[in-house]
Design brief:
With 328 residues, this protein is an alpha+beta fold. It is built from eight helices and 17 strands.
């Protein structure tokens, strides 16, 4: 009996970005370059994360701080070394930290700094300041678990990564930043959603999650009466769907499973479609997330994981049955 299976793993192409950060980054060519492979995005909401008790220990060559989230009883204790390969910094450099306060009107410029939404690492050599990297709490966490930076972090970081899904979209014909600029549903969410925490601005709570594929694994088995041309095409990889086609399918799968409030089309007839994987006749299709995020929707949640085969999946069997398979 012939069987064709495809296992698709999605990962964040960039750290979750608040609407406020997006307004400052949407024309940044560097971020646009990073997001070239990201053709799926989710607009979600979570309580604001902040850096607290930020203190530079120059004797220890490190910045210490805590990460807090409004309404979350947990906190993360962090130590960020100034000198590390990922920043291209060494003991020969003079390092400075620039901070961004969530409320500039009440900010007190004295140590330790509190209520920060971001900080920048700056290299000072020969009287010249060179910007190295900027971090929000989510960017620091995502860079850390992805192995992009060195940082000591203790605490339940997964509890800071719960996102209430409002909208799911694709950007296969243009860059995702251009797609979101002036996006009507994005503006609707900012205008109509109430803050989770009283008095907080939706611009700081609404977040955009950008996704690319971490892997697409196709497995195909053939029976004794299988078509030889089909077997040859499989061995040569000629029958493997394009990334665009899989992105078109995963958008429909996620919307069908989660029914986001602001999506007009909920694809209730999925997996049937003209531009997804329906005509490829897969026996089994799965979509999962390799980051430790949790996507919350009206009837449940989908949890990602860095551990192999420990993430929840959206599964489509025999081109008919769609379900969310929970691992825990």
């Amino acid at each position: 009996m012939d069987r064709k299976i495809i296992l698709n793993k999605l990962e964040l192409a960039y750290a979750p970005m608040s609407s406020f950060e997006f307004s400052h980054s949407k024309e940044d060519p560097y971020i646009e370059y990073i997001l070239e492979e990201a053709s799926l995005y989710i607009i979600a909401q979570r309580p604001i994360l902040t850096f607290e008790y930020v203190f530079p220990h120059y004797a220890d060559h490190a910045l210490t701080f805590e990460i807090h989230q409004k309404g979350n009883p947990n906190k993360l204790i962090c130590k960020f070394p100034f000198f590390q390969k990922s920043l291209e910094t060494s003991s020969k450099d003079t390092i400075a930290i620039a901070v961004d306060s969530l409320d500039k009107d009440t900010f007190e410029p004295k140590l330790p700094f509190k209520n920060l939404y971001g900080f920048s690492v700056v290299k000072q050599n020969d009287g010249v300041n060179k910007f190295i990297k900027w971090f929000s709490p989510e960017k620091l966490l995502q860079n850390w678990w992805a192995g992009l930076i060195d940082c000591e972090i203790s605490g339940d970081y997964s509890s800071f990564l719960n996102y209430k899904v409002h909208y799911i979209g694709k950007a296969t014909k243009q860059g995702v930043l251009k797609r979101l600029t002036g996006h009507s549903r994005f503006q609707d969410i900012l205008s109509m959603e109430n803050p989770i925490t009283y008095k907080d601005l939706p611009a700081h709570e609404i977040a955009i999650l950008y996704f690319k594929f971490n892997d697409n694994i196709q497995i195909q088995s053939f029976g004794g009466s299988s078509d030889m041309d089909e077997m040859k095409s499989s061995l040569l990889g000629e029958n493997f769907p394009s990334q665009e086609k899989i992105f078109l399918d995963v958008e429909k799968a996620l919307i069908n499973a989660m029914g986001p409030k602001y999506n007009r089309e909920l694809f209730k007839g999925y997996p049937k479609s003209k531009d997804g994987l329906y005509k490829d006749n897969y026996s089994y299709v799965s979509y999962s997330f390799v980051d430790p995020i949790t996507l919350i929707y009206r009837n449940g949640e989908i949890r990602g994981s860095r551990k192999h085969d420990d993430a929840d999946s959206i599964v489509i069997k025999e081109n008919k049955e769609v379900s969310v398979v929970k691992m825990n």
